[in-house]
Amino acid sequence: MRTPTLEAAFHATTYCIDTGKEIFSLRIGQSHPAFASWLARRGRSTWGIVTACNPGRQLLPCLNEARNLLLREALLERGWCQMPTHHVADSGNWPDEAGFCVFDVESSALQTLAREYGQAAIVYGGVDGAGRLVWLERENEKPTREK
């Protein structure tokens, strides 16, 4: 569920994408020229970050690794190009989370998959390398208005 506190937590996180040769450390809403250049050199048009960790903000440290293995299998079954990610909260009050950066997949398809793993949002971006936070509505859930 979208709340100002949860939104602030997503924005106060560094999303690290491991390409195997370099690591890009991204922040929501901030441009990243080196990542944009990397995307362009590979002809990538979109990217999105998803995890299976801690669904519904419930800390599940003993299940996160197994959940992410299932998510990775789902990505591979779909034939989606992906790379590992690591998400680090600024506050240190939330454990680091592993996930995946998926390339050239429609936002709606990635949102559907993230919902299956109980996630509240994904990070999604284009060729400029700047990601935006995309909230996921649950079935039968009406959008809420922030006060």
Characterise this structure.
By secondary structure, the chain is α+β, with helices and mostly antiparallel strands. It has one domain (4-135). Helices cover 31% and strands 28% of the residues. It contains four helices and seven strands, in the order H-E-E-H-E-H-E-E-H-E-E. It has helices at residues 4-11, 33-41, 61-78, 107-116; strands at residues 13-18, 23-26, 46-50, 82-89, 97-103, 121-126, 131-135. Strands 2-1-4-5-3-6-7 form a seven-stranded antiparallel β-sheet, sandwiched between helices. The longest helix has 18 residues, at 61-78. It starts with a helix and ends in a 12-residue tail after the last strand.
State the gist of this model.
By secondary structure, the chain is an alpha+beta fold. The protein contains four helices and seven strands, in the order αββαβαββαββ.
Summed over residues and divided by their number, the pLDDT gives a mean of: 90
Number of distinct beta strands = 7
The ordered string of helix (H) and strand (E) elements is HEEHEHEEHEE
Number of domains: 1
How many strands, what sense, and barrel or not for the largest sheet?
7 strands, antiparallel
Query: Structural class of the secondary structure composition?
Result: alpha+beta
Strand residue content: 25-35%
Which stretches are poorly predicted, pLDDT < 50 over at least 5 residues?
140-147
Form type = globular
**Helix coverage percent of residues?**
25-40%
What strand line-up does the widest sheet have? 2-1-4-5-3-6-7
Q: Ends: how far apart?
A: 14 Å
Radius of gyration: 15 Å
Total of DSSP H or I helical runs spanning 4+ residues: 4
